[in-house]
Amino acid sequence: MAENNRAVIKLKEKFATSILDVKEFRGEVTVTVAREKVVDICRFLKESLQYNLCTDVTAVDYLGKQEPRFMVVYNLYSIPNKDRLRLKAGVPEADCTIDTVSCVWNSANWLEREVYDLMGVQFNNHPDLRRILMTDDWVGHPLRKDYPLQGPDREPYKGRLS
Q: DSSP strand E in the chain: where?
């Protein structure tokens, strides 16, 4: 069914080698793309297929479950077509970077800053990549699965055990 989606067909025509996977689950289409082409694909989605709203940018940490470790996820919406599309791009731990899409959608600016702050993914060419939720002197990225539960340099929790 996802293969019949207009956006998926057009993406496969234009970026055949950069479309790594297409899945549909409960009516939602997810396209996994090569991270090197994320800006070109996003620009095409906005300019040619009218995905004019980036509603969210987030990331998933697959620590020990799969490679690449991180997956940056873009939730897109086409207002004229009333259609949603999820775009994903894998980011390896050894080179935890991906190009910014804030040049395509201004709304991605602060969303990418949040991903940088909490997950540690660097967005290349971002106009203002700095922490947005944690203080500037905060050590680490709190949403990574290997981050200490009590925070940096903290004693383990010693509350009630029963």
A: 19-25, 28-33, 53-61, 70-78, 83-91, 97-99, 122-124
pTM: 0.90
Instruction: Say which CATH class 2-124 falls into.
Output: alpha beta
- The pLDDT value recorded for residue 42 is 98
In tens, the pLDDT along 88-113 reads 999 999 999 999 999 999 999 999 99
136 phi and psi, to 5 degrees? Answer: -60, -30
pLDDT, one tens digit per residue, over 39-68 is 999 999 999 999 999 999 999 999 999 999
Domain ranges in the chain? 2-124
Cis before 68 (ω within 30): yes
The whole-angstrom separation of Cα 136 and Cα 52 is 32
CA dist 124 and 100 (Å) reads 6
Q: So what's the pLDDT on residue 1?
A: 55
d(CA 97, CA 72): 10
